[in-house]
């Protein structure tokens, strides 16, 4: 039986059920939080709040979430273990990788293979070593193994740091077989850069890659072109209606389903129990940006507009399962 690693250990992929493919539990700047913890407040209260929110999600029949919180987003697995143990009815699938729109974190800045090469050493890219260790041996001695890889390319495009992380993720993927999620910025068509660097140059099979945040765009011709390359499209920011609307996001899924691409889309919110990138007073105003919004508002709208229950199952169950089962190294 194929299995996928979760916070509570391996789970049969047939047991994944309805899966949201891009949800965080926490998104934090760990460095700032260590020094200015007053907004975060009580660890126990934050954990209890997360347990409550995730239990409410599981009560809607959602069985799994893929959590692409990696270096740069404050990943801290012991805290997530504490939460997962109290919500065993929800599988939380952890990731490894690095999140930047620009340069690599300073930790890696001078640990560059080019520097090692200048010293006459053929030291491998340290990110590949670290990501692989998270996948093969587990994260920071917790025994929790990462089940997918994450990197990002945003409006700034292929900066030196973005390219270095992207190639490290591609090489770790080729070596371990675990699938990839890339944060993209579809408004500047960065999915095409992913195609060029990861697929054309690093040999990554596009069907193993979720292009996250593709649903930020309503350009269905561009989205169809990406799907035709084999990519899985992340329609994964439902509830976040900044620069777009509920209807724009939902109608894009409707149109892509009508065009026959249900087997190329996954759904999610990209929300979290607490994120420090946005002032909590602003987050509070975004009342739809919760774990419950797809079930409560989006699925009914999709059904009303001609998306079938079979297509919904394809996006929520079959596509995530296929993604986590397609894990051969190559
Ligand atoms: Zn995210």
Written account of the structure:
With 330 residues, this protein is an alpha/beta fold. Helix content is 42%, strand content 14%. Strands 3-5-6-7-8-9-10-11 form an eight-stranded parallel beta sheet, with helices on both faces. It has a two-stranded antiparallel ribbon with strand order 1-2. β10 (232-235), α10 and β11 (265-267) form a beta-alpha-beta unit. It is globular, with a radius of gyration of 19 Å. The chain binds zinc ion (ZN).
**Euclidean distance between termini CA atoms:** 21 Å
Strands in their spatial order, largest beta sheet: 3-5-6-7-8-9-10-11
What is the share of helical residues? 40-55%
Helix and strand sequence: EEEEHHEHEHHHEHEHEHEHEEHHH
Write down the oligomeric state. single chain
Give the structural class: alpha/beta
Question: How would you summarize this macromolecular structure in one to three sentences?
Answer:
By secondary structure, this protein is an alpha/beta fold.
